[in-house]
Every structure is written in structure tokens, then in C-alpha cells.
Amino acid sequence: MIQMFKKWNCFFAILFVYPVYAQEYHFEHLTSDMGLSQGNVLSITRDYKGFLWLGTEDGLCKYDGYSFFTYRHYPKDSFSLANNMIFNVREDAQKRLWVITRNGFHLYDRLNDRFIRFKFYGEASFLNDQYISDFIFETDSTVWIASIFGIVKYNFSTHKIENRLTNFQGNQLIKGIDIHAIKMDSHRNIWVVGNTGCFKVDFAKKNIVKIIFKTDIGKVLQTGAYDFYEDRNENYWIATTGQGIFILNNENHVIRWLNTKNCNLSNGDLNFIRTDANHNIWIGTNNGLNVITAQQILNHDYTCLNIRHKFYDPYSILSDITTSFYEDNEGRIWIGSRFGGVDYYDKQIKQFNHLYLQPGSSKSMSHNNTTSIVENEKGEVFIGTDGGGIDVFSKDKKTVTPFSKYMTFGKLTNNKVLAMTFDLKGRLFVGMWKGGIDVFDFKLRKQIHLKNGNGPLDLSSNSVFCLLTDKRGNIWVGTYQEGVNRINALLTRVIHFQKGEGDLYKNSGVSIRKLYEDKKGDIWMAKEPSGVNKYDYLSGKMSYFFQRGVSNKEKDEFSVLSFFEDSKNRFWMGTRGGGIRLFDTKKNQLNPETLSGDVINDDVFEIQEDDNGFLWFSSNHGLSKLSISTIGNTSSLKVKTFDVEDGLQANQFNLWASFKSKDGNLFFGGVNGVNYFRPSDIVFNERKPSVVFTGFSIFNKEMVPGIKGSPLKKSISECEEIILNHEQSLFSIEFAAMNFTQPKNNEYKCKLEGFEENWRYLGVERKVTYTNLDPGTYVFHVLASNNDGLWSNKETTLTIIILPPWWKETWFRILALLSLVLLISFIWRYRMNKLKKTNEELEKRVIMRTIEISEQSKELETVNNQLTESNATKDRLFSIIAHDLRGPFNGIIGISNYLKEDYSELSDSERLEMISTIEKSSNNLYNLLSNLLHWSMSQQGTLLFSPEKIHLADTIHQAANVVKGNIEEKHIQLELDIPDIEMIADNNQLQAIIRNLLSNAVKFSQEGGRIEVICKEKENDQVEIKVIDHGVGMANDVKERLFKSNEGKSQLGTKKEQGTGLGLMIVRDFVQIDGGTIDVYSTLGEGTTFVILLPKHSGKLSDI
To answer: Of 94, 623, 854, 971, whose CB count within 10 A is highest?
Structure first.
């Protein structure tokens, strides 16, 4: 068991050595200069479509990798955010996006691209317009919400609070406090952190306890808490406000206290504590960001790596006040800050470490223009610069030390260092421009200076371009215009290869640009301005290539900058203007399968091979990685070129400045410092990006749902189909690949099916425009590649339907065709029937005359009927006047004469009784005359309908007053149930209707009876009026003849009252004129009910 444990320890130690050594965090940024609404970012999340949402103190920003769209509060827009202060934005498992503002809880409406302000109901209404500090979903429909009132469990489905913790012991501890966050642990308990401390809600024990923070010596600290995190060992990390971090076990006991003194924590005032997918701990404070790796925690090492803003480092965080943390599903770490916007660490961005001049930094070089790089036995890297001398880089400490401080003896002759090499004894040879060579012997602590002269250790030139230590320990020196020198391993003699000696040169004044020793020990020399020599060390012979007049193998001159023999014994030449070339060392000629500048930049400065066999080339357009796989005689090439956007020092690299260290790191120098990297860190992005539509415009005007003329029924990112009319002839579609790793390098291709047959390559352009398309149905397809050129195979599509103008519609074409056919048919029939019509003309005239005579006869018959009916009406009118009017007049005259003659002898009561009789007779006479007048006008069609605004109760009271005498005479009880109803009707006609119905009810009611008038409003804007008596009723045959005008006299009343029969006919006619209906319900011996339905607005207000 112990042995197994040791084996596993070794395994993990090996596994995690590299990350601890190599981890340097390079941050990219999103700032207000790039479109972010504000630099204070409080919350971050990414939705399922790939959009990044950033909650700031000035609105909610949506980021698509290229641009920002900001949602804000607009007072006149109920679908805008309630406040611009965004505290929390989060997407739940149902892909719903929730947003908390200072005074609102919102749900994002994706279809309409707007926000719905969530409304709490019932007992939860107290949460409306409150500051909700945090929330966590327990299920899809239930959520725990934190506010000044504590925490409650709310059900979105039932709109009810399911738990307020009222029966929990200690529930008052979390009420009235400023809660910063609530979290749920693996045991489903809830932790509340706020300004008064940290509290655990234990559902098993039904209590709430406050966590006691004790120091290592047992001292209790009173401090607020800001965040909570549970690690994979079920330990609880609590971030406090001022006292660092307390780690608790699952029994709530403090097992470790991390503070600024004992773990290098940058600040004790914490804003968040989170973990990434690799279980590394990220801690945000008011003074920088801190990281504790998962391996450290396994080793019980809690020392924090401090990450702070460095003004000289563009890849450092922009602000030390780190406020929020989010890791997306692609492992990208997003850090929100105060004043600095967003910093993000993307593992997919190539990890090219960069050393350069950055005053104040421990990694600052003395000069940026790098010319040479070598490594000593200790693994220290010496970097030569043209103007800054030498800097020594410690890979372990990540520090750079100027050579002047590194050395304890000697100094450089000058700072224009162009070449360096260590010999087999560990001595450092430094070649300079116009400074000769300085040799530093670190063991003997001795410096030797070699310069131009005639002595045995003198050089042919003081300007040294390149140095090389061969397998035998000799030092080869390439000079400016003075050829090659060779220094023996004993450092006792310098050989000058001059004209005539070994026939090295066929011309004088040659500069040596590059020296290289192949696996056989032969020395390759690249000459300026052109040509290559190969020196065979064993034979002492020289071979010549690519130089006119010297080599017969090449017709043209060829300029070589670098050499490299790879692990598969392929010999490469980097050229100026000729790309990279393969050279066949057996045939001493270029390989016919030459790689041209199509796959690598034409100027190739340096070549290195990594441990996996990939070749790396530096040029003036960046750094390239080349892999070659050969099947038979066919070579398959794969090239990826990196540029300054990938973190390179610049696109321009330098000759001589490259090196592969013992641990496999590659170094390449250029005009802005040095890049070093472990090649296995330079991973390619294997994620195929999806594409979302981000904009649709017509005639360059952005379309959104709901605006006039917009064809969008929902947000463009949710659209599957768009219908355009024929006038919307120019439209543009905008889209974005949801790849945030160097999104500027995303590329696109598209095709409009129905218009284009082939894919159209767009490059980095992400907007297309179409104009004057024919009507029809089209399908727009778009694909994207990520930053590393990996194309997605899942298309995003949008159907576009362009409607034709009405004159091109199918229905119009069919109608036009039918019209043409009908026109031709009509002309043909016209011509064919012309003669027939002539022959039929006389017959038609006879028929027409006959019809005219028949119609005249019918008209005469109608007039005769009308005259007959008019005579009948006149006769009946005269009969009523002669008979029915005489009775009331006789009564009035008789009583008046009696009252006149015997007035003095009559008592007051007798006089009053006679006057009442005269009044009753007068009212009866008035009713009769009014009915006669209305009936006559109705029969003649001269009755006017004059609607006005009336109060129904007033109208009915007025009508009742007219028949009041008859009612009192029979001692009848009149009950009125009339609400206050306002309606539009003809007041006179409505009074006549009520008056006649009441008269009819009195007539057929027994003495002492009861009459009811009930009114109420009905559906469909109608008013119902019921007149109910409890009198004699009527038989069915009488009811059927009730409204007929030819019935003559009506039946006698209960006191033998007579009537004309006009009253109910007038009721019928007036109800019809008012647009109403009348129904009668009667039972013989029980009474009668008249039901009238009238429209509440039977006339227009303009008629009033």
C-alpha cells in the first residue's frame, strides 16, 4: 500500500510539475473603449447560444465577440430594465436568462429581445421593487431569493412562497442584514454570507447558525462575509470582508485561516472565491487576483499566486479591484473588475511568453532588438541585443537580469551584441558589431578580448555576424565582409580563411550571414549577398551552391538566410525571397518537391524543430508551424502562421535570434523582444463554432421587431423565416461565430440557395448584402471557422421569402388570362348573336310592353289597397273620436256643471273628490289623444325618431305620474326597481311605451293589486324593462291577437274600463323604431308580464 501510495505521488508530481512551472496568465480585455457600457462589471454569464452577458453599473451588455449591445432603463418602455445598476445575470437549466437590478427581477424575452419585469403576487408581493441581492434555483420552478427580509423559497408555477424559514430556530439572524450571496452545498443546505457574517441554514436540524471565525490562536474575529465555495473534499471556503479566507470542515469547524501574512493573499478584503474546471481556486480581492492551484491544495500548500495590474504589461489585468468571476463552457476565465472592464484568460490563445523592455518589471529586458539567444549548463538563457548588451533570463524565477549585474567579473566591450555561443568548456563567446569578441570563462573568472589584428589570436574583422561551436570544440566566426575565422578549442590560434587558402572564396569582401554544422560535422556557410558554401571537415574541400560563375548546378543566384537538419535527416534552407527549400545532401541539389512561398513567408530567418517533430519558422510576417506527412512520393503539408494578435512580440523577427533550450522550450527573437514557449502549449482550437444571426437591415436601416415596416416578427437571433415585400429590394444579413478566441480571425462563407450555387468565401467579413432578387423562396446558409481555421460542418440557415408585386401574383395572372378568354368569347358571341338579337328585338319589345302593363296593374292594385286601408284608418279614427272622446268630455262637463251650481253647498272633501275626477278624466283624455296622435303619425310614416341621452329612472317616473290617478283609484301598489341607467333613446316614445304598459296593467289589475316595473342592464349593451301585473291574465288566443290593428275595441278591464286598443300597437311600433323587441308572458288568472329589450345606444350621439 505504501509503495502504491509513493507511485501515485510520483505520478501526480510528474503530472503537475509542468503546469506549476509554465503557468503564466496572459489576459485579454473588454473595455469601454471597445463598446462596453461602463468599466464597473458586477456579473458575467454566457447563454446557451454563446452570447456573453455583462452586468455593469450602467446597463446590461450583450457581447457577440465583435461588438456590444447595451440594454438600459427607459422610463416610457415597460419592457426595458427597471434600473441600470445590474447586480446579477444568470441563466438557469431551462435556458431562461434572469437579471437582477437595483429594484427589479427580470426575465429575458428572447423572441422579442426585451425584458419582462417579474411580478410577485400574494404574500410574496413585498419583494416587488426590492433589492434582491442573490438567488439560487432549487428546482426548475422553485428559487431561493435573498433580500433585506432574509431568504424565501418562491415557486414560479404557483406564484406562492413555499418556505420563509419561520419555524427555523435562529431565523432572525439573517433578517435585516445586507446579504451578499447565498449558496447551496452538496447536502442541500444553504449558506448565507452578508455584512454581519456567515450563516448556515440546516434543513435537517431546522436551524440557522452563525459561523464563528477563530484565528490560529483561538481568537474570535467579528467580520462580514462576501462569498462561499465548497471544494471537492466538502470543505467550505468563506471569503470575508477584511480577514481573508476561512476554510471549514463539514462540521463547521475552522481548519485553516488564509490571510495576507500566511499565504501571500494580496488583500484581506475579498469579493469572490471560485473554482475553475481544473479545481484551481480563484480569489478576487480589492488589491488583485489570486490563484491557488489544485495541486497545491492536494499538497496542503495554500500559497497564492498574485496577479496584479502592471502598467508596462498589456497582458496583465487592467484593475486590481476584481469584482466578479465566470468560467464558460470552453474553459475561458472571465474576470469583472471595477474601473477596468473585463479581463479574460483564454487557454486557446497561444501561450507565447514575451520578454521585452518594461521598466520597473523584474522581467524587463535592457533592449528590445534581439539578435542572439543561447543557454548555459544551468539552464539560464542569455539574450543578446543590438544596443542593450546581454540579459540573463531565469526560467524558474521568471526574472531577467542585465549582464552587468549578473557578472561578478569583466564587462562587455560594447552593447551591440550580434552573436553568442558557449564552447564545450562552458566559456561564453560574444560577438559584437565593431567590438570583436569577448570571451568569458566563468570557472576561471577571466575575460579575454579578441579583435582585428595580425597576431595568432586576432580576428579578420571586429564586426561579427555569427558564431558556431562545432563538435570538435572549434569556434567558427562569420564576419562582416572579411569571411570566416576559426578559433581552435584551446583558444590559442585563429585561422583566417582568405582567398587562395583552401580556395574558400572565388571573390573577396564576402560577409558570412549564417553558420551551421550538420550531423556529419560539415560546416554550412550562408554568404551575403548570395550563395552557400559547404566545408567538408574531413577532406578540407569546399562545395559551392547558388552562386553565379562558381556553381554550375544553379543558373541563378540564391540568397540563403538559415539552415536546419531535422530529426528525419531532411535538410532545410530558409531563403530570402524563395521561401523554405528542401536540399538533397546526397545529390547536392534542391529537392524537386520544393515548398514555395505559398505555404510560408518568402523570407525565412530561423528554423527550429520541437520535440514532436514539428518545424517552426520565423519570418517578417510572424512565426509558422509546419508539419509534413509523406505517403509514397506525395507530401502533405499543414502550415499555421501566428502573428502579433496571437501574442508574438511583433510580426517582424530577426536573423540569428532563435534557440531550443534543454527542456524543449523554443525561443525566437525579434524587433520587440523575445517570445519563448513550450510547443505543446500552443494548442489549436478544436471547437467548431456555431453561428448566430445578429442583425438584419433593409436599405441600411436596422430592423427590430415591432417597428413600422419591419418584417421581423421576433428577434433576428431567433428567426427562422423572414417575409419581404417586393419594395424591400435591398437587405443585409449580419452574423457572428460564437468563438471568442481571437474572434477577429474567425472566417465565414455563405450561400443563398436559390440564387447562388456555390459557397462564397467571405474571409473575416460577417455581413452580406443582396439586392433586386426575383420574387421567390431563398435559404441563406452560413458557415464559420474558428481562429485556427477549423470549419464548422453545421450550417445556420435563414429562409427568406420575397413576395412578388400584385401584378405578378398568381391570382392576378389567372384573372388576366380568364379576362382575356372571356373577352374573346364575348366578342365572338357578340358577333354571332348580333343577327339573332335583331330578329328578337320586336319580340322583346312586345314582352317588355306586356311587363310594363302588368307592373302598372300591380301598382294600381297596391294604390287601391292603400286607399282602402287609409279609409279604414280614417273611419276608425272618426269612430274613436265620435265615441271614445265623448265619454271623457261628458264626464268633465257634467261634474264641472255640478261643481259650479252646488259649490257653496259642497264640503271641501266633496269638492276635492270632484276635482280629482276631473283630473283623472283629463289624464285619460290626454292619454287617448296622445295615443291617437302617435298612432296617426305612425300610420302616415311621419313620426320622427329623436334620440337623446336620458336617465331611464326619470323617464319611467314621468310616465308613472301620468297614470298615477288610475293607480290610486284602484288602490294598486306600484313597485319600481330601477337602477341608475344612462342610455340614448327617444324620451317621448319611451314615455309612451311605459305609460301604455302601465295603463294596460292598471286596467287588468284587481283593486288593491300590485304592479312591478323592473329594469336592468343586459349583455351586448342592452337594457331590459319588465312591466308585471298580477291581474286577470289572458288566454293564448287573446295573446296572439294582442298587437293586431284590426281587432277594434280591447277587452273590458276589471272595473269595466273600456279602451281603444291603440296603446299596445303604439308600444309595439315604438319598440321596433327604437330597435328593440317586446315579448308577452301571461297565465290566465295569474297576471301578465311584458318584457322589452332596448339597445342602450339606440341612436347616434350626433343625432342628439
So the answer is: 623
